[in-house]
């Protein structure tokens, strides 16, 4: 099981410690570093900055949002950064949810998310293979565009720049069972949002007949500390925000996932409190047990013991949202690579 560093996205301003953490992770032998985006900083620009200051560590987006760019634009980002970094790029994509797609990007959320994802991936694969002009008569993506509001003069094109690798790894952030199952068929890896090493049965039906080399790369908060309850507070804050605020009351994929993991009543209560404006109460309503089982928090000995659970499952890459160099060093010493 390889270790990665998940930096996420910026908050109010630039995260000034991200570059230091990324270079420390490379020095410690971490396999990868990952950036993300929501509705603030983008995923590719910080990753390019990190690429310029490192030489070996793999570079991934976990995740870049599909609604933010056409699939050809995303492919351009990926092939460009792959060249600039000497073949270190890994492209992680996610569809996000209706709240973000329609509220931030001003686009309709696709009526068939599976089809939209499949078409998006198809176009990117065509760009990276560069075997001919990109052509797709899809339900959500058409290349060239032939809609009634178009000019009818669009031309099928292939990239001017030759991609460095046709097999640049492409991973998907999928949450629903059907979406996860499709991911195993069309992508090179899966980026779970929450992973509990003691509840792998939640995903078992979707992960049958995995192809060779398929990556399973969940994120987990890691923090070496004496007080477990205090160390879990950032995890609970994240869960409260995602489960309570990242979606509509009637359609929240994160809350649905928590429910499938055995915490349905708690998930609905978190939603109820958050949407009522009682955000602090929503965070406190997150069960410590759930926050703990998807994290690696506590003294070194406790983390070492719990890390063994992660090694026993199908996880190939553990992406740590580790907030400090000491935690990064401890996890490296514990032999997560």
TrEMBL record:
Domain Luciferase-like: 14-315
InterPro entries in UniProt: F420-G6PD/mer, F420_OxRdatse_Rv3520c_pred, Luciferase-like_dom, Luciferase-like_sf
UniProt keyword list: Oxidoreductase
Pfam families the UniProt entry points to: Bac_luciferase (PF00296)
UniProt cross-references to SUPFAM superfamilies, sorted A to Z: Bacterial luciferase-like (SSF51679)
GO MF entries: oxidoreductase activity, acting on paired donors, with incorporation or reduction of molecular oxygen
Protein name: LLM class F420-dependent oxidoreductase
Organism listed in the record: Streptomyces subrutilus
